[in-house]
Write a structure and sequence with these properties.
The chain has 302 residues and is α/β, with parallel strands linked by helices. It has 9 helices and 13 strands. It has 3 domains: 113 residues, Periplasmic binding protein-like II (D-Maltodextrin-Binding Protein, domain 2, 3-Layer(aba) Sandwich), CATH 3.40.190.10; 79 residues, 3-Layer(aba) Sandwich (D-Maltodextrin-Binding Protein, domain 2), CATH 3.40.190; 77 residues, Double Stranded RNA Binding Domain.
């Protein structure tokens, strides 16, 4: 088979993810080549994510590379991937999930507090949930790759900044001291890595299918179906986490108003056999609990 060209963003974290896939493929005897590209989301480090077209801001460039046959597969942080894939592109595999948790990282001289007055994040979801918990807190926009964000935190007067634990761990930048935000539900599919390819590329589908983790794939599909039912976009204040234990899916999900005042939460348990519909059912339950009003409000503001 020809060399498999692996498309990836060019950040340290994205390259770590792509190299993980590269190693898996080469372990099966395939020849590979990394093709790093800059995404729209990487080039604009100032505009808040929700103002940048909302969906696919980190994936559109790689989609174009795939569809124009410049690469054969693309590797993504799954939480960045729109719930509706571009026409002609399909999910090829999902790797085993790492930590799904968000953490607070502190600049030098600061530590965990009961109440925070200034926190950095570029995520609409994290901002809304932080304001729900700490209504008086000022949320500062924080964009860029992991190293850039850590440096911005050090150079700031903030109490802390929010990071995904998995991202810091993968590039060996997890600090000794941090606060795990157990109360904060993650973004749908947070901690999971997704491989996509062209729908008609049976060779790449076959090559990558062997390391698809079925349990992770099922859990993140439920979470993404929940997101799709509510809003669809990855830059929305929707959280979801599904855990599969003993043939049961334990699901928690929420939607929060942008300013953090209204949080609608939902928990449910589904048999594994209902996985194809579980996320949609949970999403509709949240809409009926008052989620429709939040969705309408958000659509009017972004």
């Amino acid at each position: 088979m020809k060399t498999i060209r692996i498309g990836t963003r060019d950040s340290k974290l994205a390259l770590w993810q792509a190299n993980t896939v590269k190693d898996l493929l080469e372990g099966q005897g395939y020849t590979t080549e990394l093709v790093p590209v800059k995404s729209e989301g990487d080039l604009d480090l100032v505009t808040p994510l929700y103002a940048m077209g909302v969906e696919g801001v980190f994936t559109k460039t790689l989609d174009a590379y795939l569809l124009s046959n410049k690469i054969d597969i693309a590797v993504h942080s799954m939480k960045d991937v729109p719930t509706q894939l571009a026409q002609g592109i399909v999910q090829a595999a999902v790797l085993p999930r790492a930590s799904y948790k968000d953490i607070l990282v502190f600049p030098k001289g600061k530590t965990k507090q009961e109440i925070y007055s200034k926190i950095g994040t570029g995520s609409v979801r994290r901002k809304a949930l932080l304001l729900n918990r700490y209504p008086e807190c000022v949320i500062e926009n924080l964009r860029g790759n992991v190293q850039t964000r850590l440096q911005k935190l050090e150079d700031s007067d903030w109490d802390a900044a929010v990071f995904a634990e998995a991202g810091l761990a993968r590039v060996a930048l997890l600090p000794e001291q941090y606060e795990t935000l157990d109360w904060m539900l993650p973004a749908p599919a947070q901690g999971a890595i997704m491989i996509v390819c062209r729908a008609a590329d049976n060779d790449c589908l076959q090559a990558t299918h062997t390391f698809n983790d079925a349990t992770t794939a099922m859990a993140v599909k439920v979470e993404r179906d929940f997101l799709k039912t509510l809003m669809g976009g990855c830059s929305t204040p929707v959280s979801a986490f599904a855990e599969i234990k003993e043939e049961q899916i334990y699901f928690k999900g929420s939607i929060c108003s942008l300013e953090g005042k209204t949080l609608i939460e939902h928990e449910a348990v589904f048999p594994v056999a209902e996985a194809p519909d579980a996320g949609t059912i949970a999403g509709n339950a949240v809409l009926e609990k008052g989620g429709k009003a939040i969705v309408a409000q958000i659509r009017g503001q972004i």
